[in-house]
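FW: tagging you since you asked about this chain on Friday. Here's the raw sequence from the shared folder, copied in full. Didn't touch anything.
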Amino acid sequence: MKKKPLTPRDIAVLAVVVMIFVAVVAGFVWLFVDGSSPAFHRCGKDPCPFTIGAP
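HL: got it, structure written out here
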């Protein structure tokens, strides 16, 4: 199976997918760094990303 060269449309689609992925990851990081996330408050002052949803 020969690999096709990337067309400008392929590059645009790829760029959009990467941008969405980066935005989602950045959003999660921002939530954990920011003290207003519910997971942060449940654990007191220490952020604990591994106990999301814990009482």
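FW: The radius of gyration is 18 Å.
HL: agreed, and Residues 13 and 19 are 10 Å apart (CA to CA).
FW: great, closing this out.
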